[in-house]
Amino acid sequence: MKILLVYPYFIDRRINEEDVSAIPMGLYYVGAMLLANGYAVEILNAWDLGTNPDRIYRILDDKRPDVIGFSILHANRWGGIDIARMVKKVNPQAHVVFGGVGATFLWEHFLQHFSEIDYVVRGEGETSFLELVRYLEKKETAAPDHIAGLAFRKEGRPCATEDREPAADLDSLPMPADYFTFQHLSLTRGCPSGCTFCGSPAFWKRRTRFHSVDYFISQLQRLVSRGIRFFFVSDDTFTLKPNRVIEICRRIIELKLDITWAAISRVDCVDGEMLAWMRRAGCTQISYGVESGSPKIRALYRKNISDADICRAFALTVRFGIMARAYFIYGAPQESDATIDESLDLMRRIRPLSAIFYILDLFPGTELYEQYKRRTGATDDIWLDRVEDILYYETDETLDKQRVLEFGRRLREGYFAMLPEFAAAIELEEDPALFPLHADFLSRLALTFSHGDYVANPAIGDRLPTAIRLFERALSYHPDHRAFWGLGLVYQQLQRWEDSVEILLRGIRHYAASADLRMALANSLMRLGRPLEAHEHLLPVGDHPRAMEMLVHCCRLLKDHEGEKTWLDRLKAAAQAKSP
């Protein structure tokens, strides 16, 4: 049987496409299970195909899968429904299977209202999907009542089999990296917390299972061997077992895996020893769910953390040179100007260097959604509307759209206005062994102010002065390539050409083979009318296409026609060698 696994598109556009563009890890695990058992499987990432149905039809017509499995997160359910309808038009005999957290909580709704959906895999999907494929392959006429964790129609009515027990040993699952290449990793499944806005408590039953260190490292090594150097560790709380995290970090260091990575944690699940190991092993960012500065609202979310926990975690994380990112949610029950003030006050104390702000949504499987249904008498039929979600304020008479949007505006503008102060107030651990990592951390942050995410944000003042201070502070710890290069570029933006030359020359003394430093230096030298010096500094990196272009320009300024022709010929030859 030919099997196609699909990650469908969302109907609403995202400002940050990386929020939705990555295939969920669960789909890779299902694919690995099928491949390990001899089935032909492909994965289609259709996150960006919402405006291109013709391409989807061509893919379906070309691949002609017998079984199509969809990873449904709820907000992409309409993309799944749309593509399922296309599947049935191309091949009415194909079997459409929905799975994932969104399908688990709405299995009855999907089967009752959408005839193009044949089966729903509920909960953890690897074994259930494999058993369903084997059942379909045999073309049995009896209903698949024997397959746990499945839902389907029986005598025209939706029905479900018994729940499937989650895999007791996660290491027994085939390793996705044996078959696929990706950047998202997980050490665990599940989360012990009971946050009311999250579907994890109902999906995983507040149980957490762990891969072994060997499994995690083996998967990491396979991906690194294919050139992946940055990873998202996607666990709800990666740091639940500090000793296991430290062992992972030790192994990364011992194996000399040259990687950087970001993780998610809780503010009450980190300590200094573990953070130091994480930083040495390449961790550059940890995201924490703060949610609100109001203890009253955090209690409504069942977010059992204190202000002291939050302040401690953010100070420790930054101290070891890791970006501490805060998640905030607004538009909650009992949200007011006073609770927003509390959030802004907490920001001043924890000084997050990155923050994400969300309006509170209601999703199936969450306690807040169940409360909403009990309060209003609503049913899952509300999801027949072509919407991705329901905003909480739409269900609360004490809130309205304009007021909630104003809450968001105050949080965002207040945060970004304070951000340069936060950057200036960074306190780092005075451990010489960490100094090169501190330089790396500060230069990364500086680049967000000079060339990255913060450049186009009008709410952030003093962007270039902040970048300069951070680059200079980075270099006070260690000669850092990014700091030399970034500071040279900032001086160029300010037309401080002599300062740019000076800092870039310093950088080249440490990184003589750097094409970036030499090309930036050549640019400043030519601005100062010194093309001969620019030419000399470009020669050691003359095999770089951009350097060749600059050498052509230098020769023209020097009226060196023979040199100009030589570099033009080399540039043309490089372009021909690169073209297929």
Show unreliable segments. Answer: none
Number of E strands: 17
* CATH level 1 class label of the largest domain: Alpha Beta
Find the structural class using helix and strand composition.
alpha/beta
Largest sheet: spatial strand order: 2-1-3-4-5-6-7
Write down the domain tally: 3
Biggest sheet, in brief? 7 strands, mixed
Compute the average pLDDT: 96
Distance between the termini: 35 Å
DSSP summary: helix tally: 24
Task: Write the CATH fold name of the largest domain.
Answer: TIM Barrel
Query: Looking at the structure, what is the overall shape?
Result: globular
Helix content: 40-55%
What is the assigned CATH homologous superfamily of the largest domain?
Answer: Aldolase class I
Alpha carbon gyration radius: 27 Å
The CATH architecture of the largest domain can be given as: Alpha-Beta Barrel
- Oligomer, anyone? single chain
GO molecular function: 4 iron, 4 sulfur cluster binding; catalytic activity; cobalamin binding; metal ion binding
InterPro entries: BchE-like, Cobalamin-bd, Cobalamin-bd_sf, Elp3/MiaA/NifB-like_rSAM, Methyltransferase_Class_B, rSAM, rSAM_horseshoe, rSAM_sf
Domain B12-binding: 8-143
Cofactor: [4Fe-4S] cluster
